[in-house]
Design a protein that fits this description.
- Two copies of one chain form a homodimer.
- In chain A, 70% of the residues lie in helices and 0% in strands.
- Chain A is an all-alpha fold.
- In chain A, helix 6 packs across helix 8.
- Chain A is elongated and about 60 Å long.
- Chain A binds a DNA duplex through helix 2 and helix 3.
Chain lengths: 189, 189
DNA sequence: AAAAATCGAATGAACGTTCAATCTAAGCTG
DNA sequence: CAGCTTAGATTGAACGTTCATTCGATTTTT
């Protein structure tokens, strides 16, 4: 178990905020240090390099996200209802955590992201298994899991980004309608 | 009408390739110049700055994309058939132009992208009008245009990115099945 | 007093941009 | 058409800045 000190998470939190605001390459380490209230040098006590800091941030967020998708409410459901709940959880998380969301997207569209980095944390694996189970239970159109992901959670992410950017504002009724649409797309006719 | 010289497009083409390969900030102007077979200084004859180069590249690609989506085949269709064709055109373009696609995504997830930059070229506007027309003709679920975009073209982009990354390989039958799913999601039940 | 944490000035490399010098080509003149 | 002129195109070395990273000194903790 890695011990996360106050200072370390102060650095991570500040870095998240600044990296999203200014972009990865317009965020000097010195600025992160300043805003986090630490010296520039100490960052290198906790992280090997700027890249390492960014990678760790990514993993931290991925783990938190997995845990959120499969919450208590979702645990009790199965089949299409489970998928629907996971979708709503995903959307809620993205909207409630704009910095995390924008960071994930920027990371995944940067040369940092290696596609072979599959989620290796326990919750991530549990989530995958749950979803595969839901698919066999419900009448879902036969498509690769990753395609189903794009049709569902990918849409949630895209919408959340627009909500974050204040391009759209979705009331609950509209959100339910979209959830319906998403479920309809993957269900067998 | 801006005259595009050979040298200018050589710079743009090379820049596209390198920016996608190395990321915006790991691509020095000097490298672009070298690979394009020109001197570093001349880039500043055609472009105000590195940022300007990137912005121009973006606009060039956006225009080409708009033109591709509304091709001759699509022009003759209407309603849901039109939407389906546009979707297939989008997917085909993305897969056939990996560099352009990855560039668009990197750009849109970087601080370069300002959300208020609506497509101002003629084809883009024509495309918007055509799509709105298709929506009124077909029985489409009542959702903001931008939400419908995420449910359809957004999915095409996401899938294409995975195909480009060699994560998936979609045969034509599967692609048709996905197009069905996408159309199903936006059609009224 | 030993070890760990922290500081922040210094280092050195990378890179966007500039500019004086050179080259190219097209126009002009006799 | 040869010679002259000139404006634009092109070069690449040099500049100045930014920034990730280092490290010896200092403080805090054990």
């Amino acid at each position: 178990m890695i011990k996360v000190t106050d200072k370390q998470s102060a650095i991570l939190n500040t870095a998240l905020k600044l990296l999203v605001k200014n972009g990865f390459h317009n965020t000097p380490m010195s600025l992160i240090a300043k805003e986090a209230g630490v010296s520039a040098g100490i960052i290198y006590h906790y992280f090997e390099s700027k890249d390492d800091l960014i990678h760790q941030l990514y993993h931290e967020i991925e783990v938190k996200l997995s845990q959120t998708l499969l919450d208590q409410k979702a645990e009790q459901l199965e089949g299409i209802a489970l998928l629907r709940q996971i979708w709503l959880n995903a959307y809620a998380y993205y909207v409630a955590h704009p910095n995390e969301t924008l960071f994930l997207e920027q990371y995944k569209n940067s040369p940092f992201y290696k596609h072979w980095e599959g989620s290796s944390d326990e919750t991530g694996l549990l989530l995958s298994r749950k979803i595969e189970q839901a698919i066999t239970e419900a009448k879902i159109v036969e498509l690769p899991l990753i395609v189903l992901y794009s049709l569902t959670l990918g849409v949630a992410m895209a919408l959340a980004k627009q909500q974050i950017a204040k391009i759209i504002e979705l009331d609950d009724a509209t959100l339910q309608k979209i959830a319906d649409a998403v479920c309809r797309s993957v269900q067998l006719v």
